[in-house]
Amino acid sequence: MTGRLVVLGSKGGPAIRPGGPSPTSHLLELGGRRIVVDCGLGVTRGLVNAGMELKALDLIFITHLHSDHVLEFGPLIHTAWTAGLASPVRVFGPAGTRAVWDGFVGSMAYDIDTRIDDEGRPDIRGLVSVTEFGEGAVFEEGGLKVESLRVKHPPVTDCFALKFAAAGKTVVFSADTAHFPPLADFALKADVLVHEAMLAEGVERLVARTGNGARLREHLFASHSTAEEAGVIAHAASVGRLVLGHLIPADDPLVTAEHWEDAVRESWGGPLTVAADGLVVPL
Fold first, then answer.
1. What does DSSP say about strands 59-61 and 89-93: parallel, antiparallel, or unpaired?
2. Predicted confidence band at 208 (pLDDT cuts at 50, 70, 90)?
3. Domains of the chain
């Protein structure tokens, strides 16, 4: 079965703006499994647009608990439930993921109980299991193997790159990270590396637009990788293709795909894809 990676959300950060892209989420179809990686705003609509039946939702992996990666986690499962989901959904995330799910279910208790009684739906609380993971082996079943690596994303300590291997293919997601050389060993010879990327020339305009000033600028440069640094990791890992995602900024009209390509070509000469919402990378 041919696999594919679908970029559902290509933007770094939680804010959305008119005509702009959605925050981070991906659909990975690999080894006959459909895997959702991160759940930023727009993930549900993105999955529908990618042709996935929501009631087929099965595996969800969360890299860390920043809102642009987890804000639509609960709503995705709930919407799938209203679309006919009746089979188990397994969620894997860092410490605190269970609390996110429990908090969402608590906030929706009236709706959930009403729909169970009035519409005869199965109890969503019995369909979902949450497994919290640290660094190392995360999941192995039916030929699919998932591993994690703790990366550098201060002040978040539980932020993990994820490696998915099945059917002779390997796909690695960097998660959010400052330049982190051990990631190259983790991603060694991967077919696809999805690595976050920041364009330094766009940061000042982003900071001015959001109004957070020096504090936001300090966070961005301490916690994220530039496109050039993503290329360094891809080169050191000898990956088959580098996909630049979690773009910062992703909705600046003065920044084009050519700007990203020019920046990353300083360190990476191999196959390159600059993420955009709805973009498909065949495996």
1. parallel
2. confident
3. 4-282 (3.60.15.10)
